[in-house]
Every structure is written in C-alpha cells, then in structure tokens.
Design brief:
By secondary structure, this protein is an alpha+beta fold. It has a single domain, classed as 2,3-Dihydroxybiphenyl 1,2-Dioxygenase, domain 1 (Roll), CATH 3.10.180. The chain contains five helices and ten strands; from the N terminus they run αβαβββββαβαββαβ. Strand 8 and strand 9 form a beta hairpin.
C-alpha cells in the first residue's frame, strides 16, 4: 500500500459527474428539488476545437453540453451528450441518466494513472480541455464507480 500512497493517493473528491438527457431540464430540476443555483454552462466539442479526446489511444469526437456548480468544495457536473458515439452517449443509452464518474484529487496525477493502469483498470477516455488533462478509468466492476483524475498542465 505504501507504493500507492507514494504514487497518487486520492486526497479528496473534486467533482461528481452525472450524465443527463437534457442539461437545461436537469439544472431546473436541481433548482426546484434541492435549491441548487449558480450554475455555469458550456459546450465541449472536439469537432470545433473545444477539447481533444482519445479512447484506446485513438482520437475520438465528443460533443456535450455541460453545466457545473460548486457544492461546498465539490463540483457537480451535468453532462448532456450531443453526439451518438462518445462514452457519455453510450452510458446514457445503456444506463439512463445517472452518476457516470467521480473525479478524485490525487497527490501525483501521473502516479495515480499508472497505479490504475498497472492494476488492470482500462482507460475509458483521455481529454485535454482548456489546459486541463483528464483521464477516466473503467473501475465500476471493482469500485462501484468509474474514477477520473485531472491536472492542469502546469502541475505535470
């Protein structure tokens, strides 16, 4: 276990990502049911140069409408896939709306990614969006959730 602590031990939850069929409706529902407001919104679109994504080492196209809000230091991100082939589209089609992944803060981004890869976790998606590198891993079978790690380019 010391090797893991030395190479990318999780130190906190950065965000919870939820895939939804309609981001505007979901934002309204969070407001109506829970009083959550103050959302920021945006578009991720690799075809328009708004992010670069890969899966299995190959570039993939991804387009999604997103909304995010800070809830006491943990981000809540809503993702509405606007394409038909991305990881988020497949998740929505196979599972319906729900928690897709949890992003963890780690002591060492590269070490944390290596730890999961060395232990057999499959990378679902790698992204570079607005100067932030993200890697998302398939860990549902062993952890009950998919996990991701992120770092800004200056932290590498």
């Amino acid at each position: 276990m010391n090797e893991i602590r030395d190479r990318g031990r999780p130190t906190g939850i950065v965000k919870i990502a939820v895939v939804v069929p309609d981001v505007e409706r979901a934002v309204a529902q969070y407001g109506t049911l829970l009083g959550v407001d103050g959302w920021s919104t945006g578009l991720v679109d690799s075809m328009e140069g708004l992010g670069a994504f890969s899966a299995g080492g190959a570039e993939v196209d991804l387009k999604a409408s997103i909304a995010w809000v800070d809830l006491g230091g943990v981000g809540l991100e809503l993702i509405q896939p606007l394409d038909k082939t991305s990881e988020f589209s497949r998740f929505l089609e196979e599972n319906g709306p729900g928690v897709h992944h949890v992003a963890l803060d780690v002591t060492d981004y590269e070490g944390a990614c290596a730890n999961l890869s060395e232990r057999g976790a499959t990378e679902l998606l790698s992204a570079d969006v607005l100067g932030t590198k993200v890697r998302l891993f398939r860990t549902v079978a062993v952890l009950g959730i998919a996990v991701s790690f992120a770092t800004t380019m200056g932290e590498l």
